[in-house]
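During the second year of the project, the team shifted from modelling isolated chains to modelling whole assemblies. The rationale, set out in the original proposal, was that interfaces cannot be judged from single-chain predictions alone. As a representative example for this report, we include one of the complexes processed in the last quarter. Its constituent sequences, exactly as entered into the pipeline, are reproduced here:
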Amino acid sequence: MAEQSQTLSSKHLLGIKDLNTRDIELIFETADTFKDVLNRPIKKVPSLRDVTIANIFFENSTRTRLSFELAQKRLSADTVNFAASSSSVSKGETLVDTVNNILAMKVDMVVMRHPYAGAGVFLSKHIDAHIVNAGDGAHEHPTQALLDAFSIREKYGDVAGKKVAIIGDILHSRVALSNILCLQKLGAEVMVCGPTTLIPKYIHTLGVKIEHDLLKALNWCDVANMLRIQLERQDIKYFPSLREYSMLYGLNKKILDSLDKEITVMHPGPINRGVEITSDVADSKQSIILDQVENGVAIRMAVLYLLAGQSS
Amino acid sequence: MQTSELLYGQKFQITIQRLCHQLIENHNDFSNSVILGIQPRGIFLSKRIAEELRKILAEATILNGNLDITFFRDDFRRREGPLVPNSTQIDFIIEGKKVILMDDVLWTGRTIRSAMDAMLAFGRPEKVELLVLVDRRYSRHVPIEPNYIGIQVDSIDSQKVIVSWKETDQEDKVILLSE
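Output from the structure prediction step:
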């Protein structure tokens, strides 16, 4: 019970790949207390009052960016926001130059989303600040995976032993890879489900089950994490039509009710209602989609707190 | 390592009793007063005092909560790593109440400064008091003094004061460790 300090094993949060199980548990334990803080009348703590954080988004985002910004404000950090579309990146400035210019203004942490895989790792080799990956291409989205696993833990008490099916566009999803790694580190079983064209060729090497039949996947799992079709990343046609996709892989109330058990439905957002999930499922009591969003702020507060607290 | 026992056995029990009676002198039946133990070690003291008060004032409702100060400390980023937070449990309203903060040892006073900051997130109390089991005199870094004191100790920085509790360490006692 004595005061004890614990640190993450990494200076950055670039991907779930770099975290060990103890790191993930430490983030969860810290997020528990932050969730408690978020339910108080005054939802702000002064921990990060001398820390400046730059949110650099080279790709569109609503939830993640808002969630990070709220987390930073609740921790009393100073924040600067930057969207690539309205910046000098469009004038031809390189990533390192852009970020170095921002760092010259004395920034301690960078939260970055980028359309290319590995952008965070690249940046971490060139600059001195703590880097938090808020999504890099189709590679990783660590905070999303952490909040997903945290939501499962909240619902069931533990992640270990749970069966989680990730259903949809696995090929273009950064949420899928981070989720697989995170859930496996916590002892859950993972299955991916989708049309053959949207399942990466060598995904079995990660030790996940592969299924192409939605009903079989749903019958197997405790939790179904429905992913959006990432049309913006699809360079060719991967299936005949959205209508056909939704008939074969869309989750509706009829299928959900036909199962002999009650499964939990998750979605990282944004939802395309009527494609991968119907409105009656998204808004049903089996869905924990809005809990995921709520937990997102607590998880991001925990990550920022633990990284910023490392001695410089 | 030299050890000397400052408080133990019956004397420990009498000290707790005295603190309870001093509290009753100022707070009567506790109808407008609440107790907050400071995490992690102050909660054993606040729990014990609340239990004793319930025995003495059988009719009264003694409200007792736990306050975690981790996010309000002034040494964040100035130590090796971030501290692991503990839980805060305050299931009552402190707005307009008399709050008695309790901690086992008062040394530099920085914890209490943080606690007052943390407490304000739950409302504006009418009055705030401080009760400590051990007051290490002449070592304050901030201008904070306790209202109720179990024992006073004159110690130097290299010495340590350790409070053990029956619940976790089998025995109620206060010891002073010297190098």
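Residues 8-167 of chain B form a domain with the Rossmann fold fold (CATH 3.40.50.2020). The two ends of chain B are 5 Å apart (CA to CA).
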